[in-house]
Design goal:
This protein is of the alpha/beta class and 513 residues long. The chain is 37% helix and 19% strand. Helix 4 (94-105) packs antiparallel against helix 7 and helix 10 crosses helix 11 (312-324). The structure holds nicotinamide-adenine-dinucleotide. Its EC number is 1.2.1.3.
Amino acid sequence: ATNFGIKEALNQLGIKAVNEGTSTGSNNFSNGDIIDSFSPVDGELIASVKSTTREDYEMAMKTATQAFKTWRLMPAPQRGEIVRQFGEKLRENKEALGKLVSYEMGKSYQEGLGEVQEMIDICDFAVGLSRQLHGLTMHSERPGHRMYEQYHPLGVVGIISAFNFPVAVWSWNTALAWICGDVCIWKPSEKTPICGVACQNIIAEVLRENNLPEGISCLINGDYKVGEFMTKDTRVPLISATGSTRMGKIVAKEVAGRLGKSLLELGGNNAIIVTPDADIKMTVIGAVFGAVGTAGQRCTSTRRLIIHESIYDKVKNAVADAYKQLRIGNPLDETNHVGPLIDKDAVKMYENALERVVEEGGKIVVDGGVLSGDGYESGCYVKPAIAEAENHFEIVQHETFAPVLYLIKYSGDVENAIEFQNGVAQGLSSAIMTNNLREAERFLSHAGSDCGIANVNIGTSGAEIGGAFGGEKETGGGRESGSDAWKIYMRRQTNTINYTTELPLAQGIKFDL
Ligand code: NAD
């Protein structure tokens, strides 16, 4: 069987073969227990890393803090030039890194490439931004005074990321943090550590070529315990954490307890509203890609379809028909649509969700099930399933990180659909399919979707770099990537300068000596 060029890709990315020991980023802060990374694609051992001990972490912090002293003094556009070179290196490594993402995480090769493209896009965005980190000027109430604000680098930014976007989330944070003058310490998911090493190797080469300290980017490995080194550390002014709401609640408390800043990108429970004025063909494509892309393991995956009763059966049948055409298998084989789940625990959660929805009174429309046999040896391949359900079901209220789509019927006005859409704890992505301007505008109005992302005639998944990305409620409130998301990576300072020989006080307060 072909290995789809995985060996060559690993080699290009500087990952050691399984029999050659553990891989590290070139600034190695990992000397603890071995973490083996197995591919959900074929169950094979990809490579190994070591985890970061407390001592290793202290070294990383020291190295990062030292690097910050140089990096923060470099003019922002020059830092932008380094990020530009990083983007170039990513272009050179796009296929290899895309392949590794696909092999270690299990998403399709196309989506793996898409993830690397997102990294390239955020670099381009950050390069331009490096000349625009602007504050405002204000008019002082005192004569002969000037007042303005400026943004300064924060320091060491701690990044904790999830398995499902093993490379892009890191770059969304680092590309902005770097142009802002910060240095970063990254703890990738323990489920995708090899992607972390590959990324570190790429940025390390850029830094080396520019005679810059590698501490600008530090990689640490391990599970939540290693994450806690950072969340508890007062030397880390900002923690950017992407993952489950469960994790976010713990991290938020920890960081707030020391009055640090946190940027949280947590779970979603995303819905598409399908109104009587929807274009059914577009709806089917948007819903199916949204529900089965990355095997339903995107934070923006479509979990609920809220369909008007007048077109309910038509939409249900069209989506169910489309599911019949889905090919499930090795995600590196581009003829397949759906790859595996990340691991067997994820498979259990998927099976549990399908049992629960039936127990709660739901009805299966498209059968699920775990696949076995040729090509499915890893035990992580499942059939995307569809169930009719009600919005208040406990399982529907919960984010199941797997390809399970719930169909929910609404009647009457679009307001009723919006109420369902908003009637969950999460608030990440939402969409409406309609050609009716009034419905679309109501969905986007103050009384409309309560999510961080609200789309019209587009599905819930797949966001562009230029917009701020994130969600409300249990999604955590953070915003990353485009728009003014850069501001969280900097500290704001208000400056007032007196160029007279008098010292008038604000608010006209008199104080004579
Ligand atoms: P997870 O919460 O299990 O783990 C995420 C990361 O947090 C890992 O690196 C993990 O080691 C670390 N972690 C866990 N507990 C911690 C703690 N107490 N202290 C410090 N670090 C800790 O999530 P996952 O299974 O890897 O990812 C899936 C989840 O991520 C889904 O809920 C998905 O919606 C969410 N997600 C959200 C976004 C977004 O932008 N909103 C993007 C991707 C994924």
